[in-house]
Write a structure and sequence with these properties.
This protein is an alpha+beta fold. The chain has one domain: Thrombin, subunit H (Beta Barrel). Helix content is 15%, strand content 29%. The chain has seven helices and 20 strands. The strands form four sheets. The chain has a six-stranded antiparallel barrel. 54% of the residues are buried. It comes from Pseudarthrobacter defluvii. This is V8-like Glu-specific endopeptidase. Keywords: Signal. InterPro entries: Glutamyl_endopeptidase (IPR050966), Peptidase_S1_PA (IPR009003), Peptidase_S1_PA_chymotrypsin (IPR043504).
Length: 322
Amino acid sequence: MTRTRSLASGLLTFSAAAVLALTSAGGASAAPAPSDGHEAPSVAGVTLNADGAADYWTPERMQSAVSGDTLAGKALGRGNRSSAALVEKGKPSSTKGTKGKPTIAQSENPVSHIGKVFFTMGGTNYVCSGNAVASTNGSTVATAGHCVNEGPGAYATNFVFVPAYDNGAAPYGKWTARALYAPTQWASNGDMTYDTGFAVVNTDSNGDRLTDVVGGSGTAFNQARGLTYTSYGYPQASPFNGTSLFSCTGTATDDPNNPQFGTQGIPCDMTGGSSGGPWFIGIGSDGVQNSINSYGYNGSAVMYGPYWGKVIQATFNSAAKS
């Protein structure tokens, strides 16, 4: 049995009983052919009431928020068509620093357009990572699909984006979401192939748009596979603590365990809390975004992200012009 971790928090593991239950239900049989992300685009979305969302996120609630990657594992458990070997990450941790065994992930200074995402789902407060992207509305944030919708299930509430978060500091404030978007394949089926979501945030108290204040990354879709990427995120499970930004760089390779996802992975040991963090083509945070942190496997220091094809492009387009 292959054990996996989800990227958002720490590695996630399925118990043997859970795997057997999914297998007996047909979840691991007759796996679909590998996807290139080019299926007919279909987009799901919801409008949010942002009243009180910024005030809701006190420092105490931010500190105690659960890593959102656990939601990826729950989506799989509800009957994802993909293999039951997927990930669910670990519990939040208050372990400080990265002392001891060195990590692949490198500590980074805050980047103005990369930040933490906080939201409520099913009565639980969660944390992910996200990135402001250039868009027609100047207000779009890219993150993981499981950070906007249960997959399938309810959408997030109390959703805020905190760019350049650093050890509790929010230099650009909390940007509340007015709408959330995800591929229908994620929102209706929890299909890990399409684990990407976009939030459209409100203007700030001065009426300024997000990317006019913090900048925004370009985006790319339908690119060649096997590119070199740099991923960013706020891992919080040990040996990290979620207080600062980290990055990983490497050449992408296909997931050998679940090829039907069509995902690619790079060497990276970021843990829970990093879900939804951006993948940039090339070295550093100045490149165009072309994926997000989605999941990983226990015992394997590789982070996987979805292929951004036509479906995710259509989702971005819907969010960007709303």
